[in-house]
Specification:
Layout lengths: L9 E5 L4 H12 L3 E6 L2 H13 L4 E5 L5 H15 L4 E4 L14 H29 L2 E6 L12 H21 L4 E8 L5 H9 L3 H8 L12 H8 L10 E4 L8
Helix pairs in contact: 1-2, 1-8, 3-4, 4-5
């Protein structure tokens, strides 16, 4: 038996139509999983689906507004109904507002916290009965190295990523009895649309990241294919409640 084989498994990836989410979705598809990507941008999703299907995988798209509770629960329910089950949930949807903390509004705070944390809570809660009925499952939360480090311009983002890591640990403890493993991935500086805005807004960021990262480059979305497969597969059945950096060594560099 191949411990990394996902044939017959069904995965839902929020924010799976681009960036890190699509990188993980590609890995899951290559390993044999049926992948439902959830997002708001239908045009972007078409390109993502084409990429997944070119790998020989079975994939579909469902529209989701992660700021709405009913939409989160509906996406989980519709995925399980369409494919008969739901084995893997990747809570990847995220956003950021970059301002000094004294300039942040309550609306800024709630936008980031609700997008990054509340949606993951709702989707995880909604998927629990499906996984329990199936005898187990895998939930992967996307944290950030900002759950380790501080940032002067990303208070809500850092707070949300610390929260999503702790939430994963709480779920891992609560649902271990149901054979559900819950873990977090902590991306470092990855070349995505979100970080493109950061490079535009934070002078010198590009150069500082490369200088500090031992592998001397920014990460790519496809760098997350392998870790997604590991945490979604039987290979990680005894791994739960942990947070794994995928950052090219950034977090261990003095």
């Amino acid at each position: 038996m191949n411990a990394f084989d996902l044939t017959g498994r069904v995965a839902l990836v929020t924010g799976g139509n681009g960036g890190i989410g699509l990188g993980m979705a590609k890995g899951l598809a290559r390993a044999g999983a049926t992948v439902m990507i959830a997002g708001r941008n239908k045009a972007k999703a078409e390109a993502a689906l084409a990429a997944l299907k070119s790998l020989g995988g079975k994939a579909d798209f469902i529209e989701i507004d992660v700021l709405k509770e009913e939409s989160c629960r509906s996406a989980v329910g519709a995925t399980a109904e369409k494919f008969g089950k739901l084995d893997i949930l990747v809570n990847n949807a995220g956003t950021s507002v970059r301002k000094p903390p004294e300039q942040l509004t309550a609306a800024d705070w709630h936008l980031v916290m609700d997008t990054n944390v509340t949606s993951a809570f709702l989707c995880s809660q909604a998927v629990y009965p499906h996984m329990k009925k199936a005898g187990g499952g895998k939930i992967i939360n996307i944290g950030s190295m900002m759950s380790i480090f501080a940032s002067s311009y990303a208070t809500p983002y850092a707070s949300s990523k610390g929260a999503i890591v702790q939430m994963a640990r709480s779920f891992a403890v609560a649902w271990a009895k149901d054979n559900i493993q819950v873990n977090s991935i902590l991306p470092g500086w990855i070349d995505t649309e979100l970080t493109k805005k950061a490079r535009e807004q934070v002078p010198g960021l590009q150069e500082r990241v490369v200088a500090r990262t031992p592998v001397a480059r920014w990460g790519l979305p496809d760098d997350f294919s392998g870790i997604a497969v590991f945490l979604a597969s039987p290979a990680s059945d005894f791994v739960t409640g942990t947070a794994i950096p995928v950052d090219g060594g950034y977090s261990v560099m003095a």
